[in-house]
């Protein structure tokens, strides 16, 4: 899976460059996020701007990352498109995750 990583003193941003987060990519995504966050030891901001489709395996990988991040620094999700937002809403994950409409909104909440 390809992504961009940006790190500063407070958080690390992970932005998948793939349009899908599905059963084909979910295991590698979860493993790579675990490796990245273990090194960074910071809050994770998952920027889903490029992700247009997520299936249950992709959501499971995101949930796994969320559980991992609870002991490290927490996790926020931003730039969620309509289809992915529906998945979060239908599964009630929008009640668990800090889902922000934009990256700027997310950074504002992190700074507060």
Describe the SSE topology:
Blueprint: E1 3-7, E2 11-16, E3 20-21, H1 26-40, E4 43-47, E5 53-54, H2 56-69, E6 75-78, H3 82-90, E7 98-100, H4 103-111
Parallel strand pairs: 2-4, 3-5, 4-6, 6-7
Antiparallel strand pairs: 1-2
Helix pairs in contact: 1-2
Detailed description of the structure:
With 112 residues, the chain is α/β, with parallel strands linked by helices. It has one domain: Transcription Regulator spoIIAA (2-Layer Sandwich), CATH 3.30.750. 42% of the residues lie in helices and 24% in strands. It is built from four helices and seven strands. The protein has helices at residues 26-40, 56-69, 82-90, 103-111, and strands at 3-7, 11-16, 20-21, 43-47, 53-54, 75-78, 98-100. A five-stranded mixed β-sheet has the order 1-2-4-6-7. It has a two-stranded parallel ribbon with strand order 3-5. Helix 1 (26-40) packs parallel to helix 2. It is globular. The protein starts with a strand and ends with a helix.
